[in-house]
Amino acid sequence: VNTPIDVINEKAGWMQDLLSEEDKDKIRNYSEYEDAIKKIKLHVDRARKVTHRLLGFSRKVEGEKEIVNINHLLKETISFLEKELIYHKIELITEFEKDLPAIAINSSEVQQVFLNILNNGIDAIGTAGSVKISTSFDPEHIIASFCDTGHGIPEDLVDKVFDPFFTTKDVGKGTGLGLSVSYNIIKKLGGDIKVTSKVEEGTTFTIFLPRKQYKA
To answer: How does strand 129-137 pair with strand 90-95?
Structure first.
């Protein structure tokens, strides 16, 4: 993807250089050409940022640890879903603890958990609603909470949401593996995920990560 992006950027720059050498008064629609080139370069820059985030997400090998602030990781995760949230008319509310400590973990694994939970929230809402993401900490845990205003989960099914292949989605719209994988990732880190839900009101997933993995 980056290769054609570079070519597009190079050609747009070449066109911009040629245009700057011309007499504006002698070229019909000069301003439109100039504006079009600016827009090409703007969207090239946007595409580069997207591929940069995707490469950063995919290149983190399993087992590799780094110092991560969960607030920053959540902001990066949200950036992947901004357009989808807008398309579905879902309001995003964030309440991040400003003094949240950092953690030494594999950020791509934790980000995968965040993406799974947020995508589930978007699917549960459908159109028009809200997702609230908050962070906090206590003496032993860093806590990230995801609360959606979706259709909710029946009380008798809440305990099954982390089971492999279990899903409340329509047939063909989910594998039932996302939350199971997320649960295993968090458990491997020594943490936990709790879920509370009420039909027609929404669902809250709360992730607990052990403070012992964090640096102040």
So the answer is: parallel
